Amino acid sequence: MADKRDYYEVLGVSKNATEDEIKRAYRKKAKECHPDLHPNDEEAVKRFAELNEANEVLSDPDKRARYDQFGFNDPMGGMGGGGGNPFGGFDFSGMGGMGGVGDIFDQLFNGGMGSRTRAQGPVQGNDLRYELRITFEEAAKGCEKSFEINRSEVCDTCKGNGAKPGTQPVTCATCQGTGQIRSSSGWMTTVRTCPSCGGSGKVVMDKCTGCGGSGRVRKKRTVTVKVPAGIDHGQTIIMNNQGEPGLRGGPNGDLFITVNVRPHKVFQRDGYNLMLEFPISFVTAALGGEVEVPTLNGPVKYKIPEGTQPGTEFRIKGEGIPMLRSSNKGDLIMRVKVEIPKRLNNRQKELLREFDGTTSDKEYEGRKGFMDRVKELFNS
Fold this sequence. Notes:
Number of helices: 10
CATH superfamily of one domain: Urease metallochaperone UreE, N-terminal domain
Strand content: 15-25%
CATH topology of one domain: HSP40/DNAj peptide-binding domain
CATH class of one domain: Mainly Beta
Structural class: alpha+beta
Oligomer: single chain
Helix content: 25-40%
CATH architecture of one domain: Sandwich
């Protein structure tokens, strides 16, 4: 028990927190560390289990009272259920999407482990995910993109109750409308979602022909999103309430749009800076000269100083990527690549030999330094 964190600390609430404050804190943190949002992240699974363990105790008045009095040394046992795992040692491996961990996540909010009020209360709809491919320029400058998604929506025929028009769902006979099945063994009471009504407390006898009694239909919708200037590859835009509709008056889920930026043919991105490898002739490197440098906003003139060495970097201020939620921009960092001609005619070779004969090692700093080190090596 020494390694377990205080449940109030896990949820980020005070010990005087109300039930509503605990519920809100749990929902917020559960979304942040839900394993579906962090695939292949074992730490996310552990955080999610720890969070549910804390919520299972603090959301139950009796368990919370015992925890406040005895901490983890509750003489009745049961703190954290299943030795610290609220799922009783449930194996998360191999589960992805909304079918594995997501089902457990839905049961928690649908009240599979809670009270009658939670079982029949509003439930937020499922979140949706979409991968949006955009160009390098669109990511840098921002854009507006439209795309189609398929999502479940409330049936227009039955308005979501699943019953044939003119009829209404009836109280579930299995759970008597509670939405839950309770069973006791000694002092232990277990609660599970009613399999007949799915926790709603109602059963549809005459099913709607439009949705087959589910209350939902699949529809194709066009979504338009504003991509902010400066967004980077792999970042996510969240469109609130653009997911699937909730249950029993619950809010819609959200739409998570992950941006996939195509590589650029010339530029590379380094944070908010642009990196550019710029070739120049050995004559320009030696004598200097003005060159035309490409940027995302068009070409600009730049003066290369004489004696420029291969690999030298020059910084052009403000020609990089716009910073998110800021008017500032990164810089364009130009790294020069000095090109040596592969084929020379006789006249050109003659001129170069003549030039080389008029220079000394002093004019080649790198070569001079190297030769000095070699002399020291052999004279030592």
